[in-house]
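Supplementary notes for students who missed Thursday's class. We covered one full example, reproduced here. Read the sequence, then the structure, then the short commentary at the end.
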Amino acid sequence: MVIAGLILLGLCIGSFINALVWRLHMQAQKKTRANKDSSYSIARGRSMCPHCKHVLSVKDLVPVFSWLALHGKCRYCDKPISSQYPLVEAMTAVLFVFLYVFWPYELISIESILYFAFWLIFLSGFIALTIYDIKYLILPNKIIFPLLTLAIAAVVIRFILTTNYDLLISTTTGAAVGGGIFYALFQVSKGAWIGGGDVKLGFLLGALIGGIAPAFLMLFLASLMGTVYSVPQMLAKKVGPKSKIPFGPFLIASAIIVQLFGASLIDWYTNLFITGY
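Structure (token representation):
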């Protein structure tokens, strides 16, 4: 029942993520018009076709199934609707279930259940950031700042419930490593090596996973993934040394890996290379 509920929730949230990404981009592209036109509002705007702007009916909004039933075309203008929409909806559902199945903590207390619920929200925001960064090479503040606020709220609530001072220390050190290193690189290169959005995302993700070792592991995995992606692209001459590559998705993927499997990876590395058994 829990998995079925997470699938349904993930499909609905995935649909919202698609709308969020599109509306934020429209607001960024048409600032003057968007500020006056409530149709682009996140809270008040109605779902519409991105081509003809026709408001969609309820039967057009069923995640994945509406797209399949309409053969990937708008009911009103017959123009193709990107496969991004059902893919993001399905991916969100899969990631919600993945997070639950591999969640490293027992969901037996109010604090643990709330922490998991917070991470479902964070995961939704991370998916939106990933899609936006891949499409537009930007990590928008309108997503990062609310997630930062939520992260602070999550730490405060968990501290109130547990009075665990180690939580505050790990959050602070994780943020210092995750964002501090990127901030130094940003300052030294004057923004040439890494973007300001990546710096803010580094602070957010470092605070979420907490601790010095997990934060360094996150940065290592993100760099490794980025290298594995970039080198073949450069060898194929699809990108050059000065080409912009979205690094946010690699950071986000590595943070999720560390959150779910970081303790096991750190123990494995410690036993293999430090203690020698």
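Commentary. The mean pLDDT is 87. Residues 2-29 form the longest helix (28 residues). If anything here is unclear, bring it to office hours.
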